[in-house]
Amino acid sequence: MKNKESEPQIETFTAVKWNAGVLKLLDQRKLPNEVVYLDYSSALDVANAIKEMVVRGAPAIGITAAYAVVLAANSAYQNSPDNWREDIEEILRVLVAARPTAINLKWAISKMRKQFNMIDGDPETQLLDLAIKIHNDDIAANHEMGRLGAELIDPDSEVITHCNAGALATGGYGTALGVIRTAYQKGLLKKVYASETRPWLQGARLTSWELKQDNIPVSLLIDSAVSNLMQTKKISWLIVGSDRITANGDIANKIGTYSHVVSAKYHNVKVMVVAPSSTIDMKINSGKKIPIENRPAEEVMYFQETQSSLNQTEILNPAFDITPASLIDYIVTEKGIIHEPNAKKMHAIFG
Ligand code: MRU
């Protein structure tokens, strides 16, 4: 396979890299203690890596899936140059199912499928070019959303973010953290609060780590301390990413987003959702129709490396929740900002 190591242009660190026919994923389960990249040359192993949270964050898993299609197509073409398209369909199904809530996975695979249906002969170059384009377009979208979102923020603001919607969750730079990065560079932000995000601790392990690397002042707090923070401090914004935005402006994001938003409304904290157009699902007209991923009970049964004695207790572990459009002040995408989102405004940009 070709080495396109020089592309795409990336930030100081990246969750997803392509190097000489090998997909490299930063193992986010190990952060911030270890920075380790794992090598993948099989698309089925990549699907497993997505399921097991080696890579996570809606845009990052979409980009990863695009590179996985290159791996799948290349190996199928070597084995069977006439039937490789049919041979990879089962693998694509497994990839799409790896995480059901984030639409970016399906979006990226559909784009790759459209491309490979038009290819004659060896698919490698054209598919790799498209995967790199998907990756680079995401980075560019993040910078544009950073610029647009920062324009909404007043000087001396303190903001809260939940989960990780940063460079680690995207092609680079970040969605919610892209806005935060740009606003900080413009001297508008005094402080960021990151909620820890049980049970995978994306806020504690990933967001705090990213922001510290950029010397952006960040304080970490447990999820249930967010309402108290809003009650006792002057917080201007809650800024979050999204895994899927439906045609009426409802959004799915990491579990706990909805309760943060409800608290924000009560305390007059404005709510900004930042997501690229690859996260928009105009085929669904309500957040109620978004499939919510339920993750294994074991993820909430452990405390400080020890399994608790909860074996007999029913455990609920939904990974995402839905926030209705009516509670959102702004949706920021690279195609523009939607104030007080609703179906008509969504249709005007994405229809
Ligand atoms: O379970 P995760 O870590 O994949 O959840 C990630 C989130 O909820 C992010 O906020 C979302 O994917 C947007 S990332 C730019």
Question: What would you note in describing this structure?
Answer:
- By secondary structure, this protein is of the alpha/beta class.
- Strands 6-5-4-7-10-15-16 form a 7-stranded mixed β-sheet, with helices on both faces. A 4-stranded mixed β-sheet has the order 11-8-9-14, with helices on one face.
- The model has no long low-confidence stretch (mean pLDDT 94).
- It has 2 domains: 4-139, Up-down Bundle (Four Helix Bundle (Hemerythrin (Met), subunit A)); 147-350, Rossmann fold, CATH 3.40.50.
- It contains 11 helices and 16 strands.
- A hairpin with a 2-residue loop joins β1 (16-19) and β2.
- The site of 5-S-methyl-1-O-phosphono-5-thio-D-ribulose has 17 residues, from α2 and β9.
Number of domains: 2
CATH architecture of the largest domain: 3-Layer(aba) Sandwich
Q: What structural category characterises the helix and strand content?
A: alpha/beta
Helix content: 25-40%
CATH superfamily of the largest domain: Translation initiation factor eif-2b, domain 2
Top-tier CATH class of the largest domain? Alpha Beta
- Give the end-to-end Cα distance, rounded to a whole number of Å: 39 Å
Short overview:
By secondary structure, the chain is of the alpha/beta class. It folds into two domains: 4-139, translation initiation factor eif-2b, domain 1 (Four Helix Bundle (Hemerythrin (Met), subunit A)), CATH 1.20.120; 147-350, Rossmann fold. Helix content is 39%, strand content 18%.
